[in-house]
Amino acid sequence: MKVHHSHVASYLEKAASASSSPATAPSTSPPSELFPFGAFQCLRPLAPKISLPDQPKKLVAPPDVLGRVRNATKLLCCTVRNHTVQVPVGGTTRWNPSAEQIKVLEALYRGGMRTPNSAQIERITEELGRHGRIEGKNVFYWFQNHKARERQKQKRAALLTLSTLDSSSLPATATKDGAGDKKEACDDAVTSCKRQCRTWGDGHGDAAAEVAAEGCTENVTLELFPLRPQGKAA
Amino acid sequence: MKVHHSHVASYLEKAASASSSPATAPSTSPPSELFPFGAFQCLRPLAPKISLPDQPKKLVAPPDVLGRVRNATKLLCCTVRNHTVQVPVGGTTRWNPSAEQIKVLEALYRGGMRTPNSAQIERITEELGRHGRIEGKNVFYWFQNHKARERQKQKRAALLTLSTLDSSSLPATATKDGAGDKKEACDDAVTSCKRQCRTWGDGHGDAAAEVAAEGCTENVTLELFPLRPQGKAA
DNA sequence: GCAAATTAATGATTTATTCAAG
DNA sequence: CTTGAATAAATCATTAATTTGC
What we know:
2 copies of one chain form a homodimer. Chain A is mainly alpha-helical. Chain A has helices spanning 6-27, 38-43, 99-110, 118-128, 136-169, 175-182, 207-217; strands spanning 74-80, 83-89. Chain A has a two-stranded antiparallel ribbon with strand order 1-2. Chain A starts with 5 loop residues before the first helix and ends in a 17-residue tail after the last helix. At the A-B interface, helix 3, helix 4, helix 5 and helix 7 of A face helix 2, helix 3, helix 4, helix 5 and helix 6 of B. Chain B binds a DNA duplex through residues 1-7, 9-11, 14-15, 18, 32, 34-35, 40-42, 57-58, 62, 68-71, 92-97, 115, 137-138, 141-142, 144-149, 151-152, 194-200. Chains A, B: InterPro entries: HD, Homeodomain-like_sf, WOX4.
């Protein structure tokens, strides 16, 4: 069942994906893709863009030009109780996801989706469109935001928990404290990306080693970054 | 010890260590235990198991006791009608986490902890010990299982969702959507990091080396994550 | 109501894979 | 290619829920 090529396969996969990204965006200046999501362009012809087609490793960029009204076809200004307000007309304000849509999006998120590629966004958009107005960028932004906010929540939870542990029974070895603060970056995976040596053998023995190790490792490291962790990326 | 197949090799090695467990000296600490926890191989007679009678448990004899005793602290052999049977004696109980403990563990998990290193496990164990009997291995296993099972749940959810999407409105023109189902997003983005090295058990000898190797600095060097396009540190 | 019987959860083990040194 | 190290997946086994017959 196992194929010999597993390595090859993954290698190719990576290589392919890796190489493909640069190829597109910068060099091909042409009108083509500005944005990963094919569908997007259609929606917003004027947007600046960034990103490449699919290779997301790098995080993507905001598809659209913020700072101006995007969806509304036009605005009406009127005054209400001394306040001037803009009332969108012709169609839209910002996307207001329906319960159904959110349900599906969350399910996808739980299922592991984080940065869907254009094809995925297209599909999702298509599907969610049945439950209400929606555009690809909405899906894109939703994932961006949701991911970021989940990360925040988790960070908070982690800090709380850890601080509780610390204060309640652990020595004040600041080790991870600092870590928790700056390198938090980890989305949710906290394990360090390098190999960590573990020693805990049977409850006795080298506490020393462990202690020493703790100094550096205890951190809750981050994850979330492109393959090839070990400094090779650089 | 050249074997043709790596799997076989490891298998044999493992089998060997498992079956021929030296009942006497745990101190030998073979470096390559199948399991980290030097002390507990299946029925390790000398395991430092804690025999705590305080855990309320049913004393009802399991339906088929013979042959599957694993956790028993020790066995009593006796002969019954020509058959030698082993009767588990002592606390056979498997760890039964208290609500408190689970709460903390889950908080940690939500906080992003997935594969705590020895130092972390030690701390966690220490802390949770205040809420009930617990050993390092329990913590280790808990994370292993929880992680795996969460992954399962997520995968199921994802498949369901995706299949729903597929069947409901999308043609099979999945460009690269198939990826959605691969590891790409599985755990939570956690998969990106490679292996971490662990050194269990023995804890003798090069603890220092391990620590050093572990390289705090390296950890530090890792980027927190895609805040910036990697590679271009500038 | 209550236990035996059955089932769902989940702790603990075992087996397979993966990655990368040698 | 072989192999050590580490993990993830699969499986086993036990405990707690729940059901069921009395």
